[in-house]
Design goal:
mainly alpha
């Protein structure tokens, strides 16, 4: 079976998870509704990553306790082959949906902020084939590209926050979200539709990470760094703009850098940073697309992942084109209910696997004594 998985270490995995989580949290979750009760996104966005990390650790613990090599095997162990197929299909759909959300967001940004005089379709033809090309070369290629760019992208993100530091004002963070913790918790839970799939994909490809333990360490490092970066960005945005301004603002992080350009001599820095973020989105999009193809081929015994990746990429391009023509709303269901489809079933799967492995070990010990 040619899955183009290869072998990578903890550094590659941590960089890949970090890029995927930061890209999804900063650009997929960043919508106007997040600021309706004040600016609490510096809690809710990192909270979505933290919840994803908790589920990731629970599943990794269940895999280790039951002796399963990857997440797909854990689903079979917990519920059997038939239900395992349903879980696999769910992972495929949600990984594809995350690739769709991320590429759609960046295509809109590049079109609206850079290539304003062309239609959106040429922009999609410029972005989507790159995602397909990277995913076509497999997991090891994606992870090593992430390692090359991970530190650079993180450093550039932090520098973009340090340059406008003179314009930060703490009073803009008010009103503090002290009376809306239930709403912030709900936003964090809802945001898991964009953070959990990246963690689940890593567990599905645990053998490519040289085992569950290595994948677990990479996931913890990547998620911890992502929480810090996302929280820092959202605090910086909150100290630059009031929550009423953010309710009507398209891509606040870009506006933050645009304000820096307008008040300094860093000409065109906003465009340069936009394309650096696009590199991160291309890597994350390829990771999601490859993950969907990997789960599909591994589960249903397709012997070569490359045709599946190309087919998924073409479907992604068609969906993006249709959506920007105003004729596709199906993926909004994933945005509304994706968190429930992820948290509840996979938490139940981890609990069942832990209980089942405990009783099997207990039974084995009883048989040995007998």
């Amino acid at each position: 079976m040619k899955l183009c998985q290869g072998r990578v270490g903890k550094q590659e995995g941590a960089n890949l998870i970090g890029i995927a989580l930061v890209s999804s949290a900063l650009f997929v979750l960043d919508i106007a509704e997040a600021y309706q009760y004040g600016n609490g996104t510096y809690v809710s966005f990192p909270g979505a990553i933290l919840l994803a990390l908790v589920l990731f650790l629970l599943l990794a613990g269940a895999m280790r306790a039951s002796g399963q090599k990857d997440l797909l095997a854990l689903m079979d162990f917990a519920f059997g082959k038939f239900v395992g197929n349903i879980f696999s299909a769910l992972i495929c759909v949600l990984l594809f949906a995350n690739a769709y959300f991320l590429i759609s967001r960046f295509a809109t940004m590049v079109h609206a902020l850079v290539f304003m005089k062309v239609t959106l379709f040429p922009v999609l033809l410029w972005i989507v084939p790159v995602v397909i090309y990277i995913a076509f070369h497999g997991f090891e290629c994606i992870a090593r590209i992430a390692k090359c760019f991970g530190v650079i992208l993180g450093a550039c993100l932090l520098l973009s926050l340090l340059f406008p530091i003179d314009g930060y004002e703490a009073y803009r963070l008010f009103p503090l979200p002290l009376n809306h913790w239930d709403t912030i918790a709900a936003d964090a839970f809802t945001g898991t539709f964009a953070t959990i799939p990246a963690m689940l994909a890593l567990l599905c490809m645990a053998q490519g990470m040289q085992g569950v333990q290595s994948a677990k360490k990479a996931g913890i490092i990547g998620a911890a760094v992502s929480i810090g970066l996302v929280a820092a960005v959202q605090v910086a945005i909150g100290m630059t703009f009031t929550y009423t301004e953010l309710q009507n603002m398209f891509v606040p992080l870009y506006r933050l850098n645009l304000k820096l350009v307008q008040e300094s001599y860093f000409f065109r820095l906003d465009k340069m940073l936009l394309f650096l973020w696009l590199i991160g989105a291309l890597i994350a999009g390829a990771y999601y697309l490859y993950g969907a193809g990997f789960v599909f081929c591994r589960r249903w015994s397709r012997y070569d992942i490359r045709p599946a990746v190309i087919a998924a990429g073409i479907i992604l391009l068609c969906c993006l084109t249709t959506e920007h023509m105003g004729q596709l709303q199906a993926f909004q269901v994933v945005r509304q209910y994706g968190s429930w489809l992820l948290v509840v079933p996979f938490t139940a799967a981890a609990a069942v696997a832990l209980v089942k492995s405990h009783f099997l070990k207990k039974k084995g010990q009883t048989d040995e004594k007998a």
